[in-house]
């Protein structure tokens, strides 16, 4: 990732189709559009590639998470379990519906710890939202069994792991619903965009209506459509969808490059005995979007991250201090800062995160460094990078 590194004539052709017809809207204008339905074609291609019955393409990954929760009836006062290590979109989507984000520890997979999930379940819990961070997945088998026992929704955030699999199934298709982001820095990009996938017809039709003002999309005339429930505008434009349509057809090409580059980096770093790698749950295959490893302690991880940056090895992240991805820096959530009043349920049920103890998460995230695997690297560039990284790390460990 990211997919923009390899833009080609394929993306240009799809975008030009849309500009030639002049129809930038995904619905209606049938007579003008010269047969081009890019959002619809992207949904078809995505559903096929992800081996599910339905896909709904929308304006962003954050929108996709919000719509997925809404489509399953999650609302005010419902608790949704999410990890301490994710992107801020996780709690934003939950709070947008008046639901309550319940933060839970991650383990050495860098994703939800199933034992911690079980302990966090209350009578208000309605959903579990694992986030497959940095190209690898949560233990979906364990989480599915917990969800079945407690009748909870399993919603996979696969925004950073498109193309990975669990027990042979594409990530996003294992739970009740799955979400992707096609924002500018993701493996498949539209500029801005996202998608919901599911095999559940009701969730799908709810998502379809909800993302377009509650319109039921029955009949040809938009003015005559019904609106069975309240919705919003989370539509994607045809221009964005056109880019995504070209990109999704290149997913396997991108995954092969990611895997090649990842393996070169990993094989070199494996020669350093003090380093260990994130655990991939049994049955899982990563998308190879990042290589994530652990140093022996927090101090060393910070040192390694700083030294890599100073020596010009770009694209390595120290999430522990990152204010988008780790709970320690989410001061807006911790201090319940909102522009208007928060829903009563959120105020009453939201744990006081300023007093929370996530020592287990701190242990793993504090020792972790994650390196983005770029698509644009040539084989010899990765080899040089790997050697340089290994030397920097070895020198620091001496
Ligand atoms: C990118 C991302 C999102 C949100 O996607 P946007 O399209 O940027 O709104 C959600 N979750 C994760 C894990 C992400 O990486």
UniProtKB/TrEMBL annotation:
Keyword Transferase: yes
Superkingdom of origin organism: Bacteria
Classification via InterPro entries: DegT/StrS_aminotransferase, PyrdxlP-dep_Trfase, PyrdxlP-dep_Trfase_major, PyrdxlP-dep_Trfase_small
GO biological process, one term: polysaccharide biosynthetic process
Modified positions (N6-(pyridoxal phosphate)lysine) in chain numbering: 186
Pfam families: DegT_DnrJ_EryC1
An example molecular function term from Gene Ontology annotations: transaminase activity
Active site: 186 (proton acceptor)
Keyword annotations of the record: Aminotransferase, Pyridoxal phosphate, Transferase
Signal peptide: none
SUPFAM superfamilies: PLP-dependent transferases (SSF53383)
Family under the similarity heading: Belongs to the DegT/DnrJ/EryC1 family.
PANTHER family xrefs: DTDP-4-AMINO-4,6-DIDEOXYGALACTOSE TRANSAMINASE, TRANSAMINASE
Protein name per Swiss-Prot or TrEMBL: DegT/DnrJ/EryC1/StrS family aminotransferase
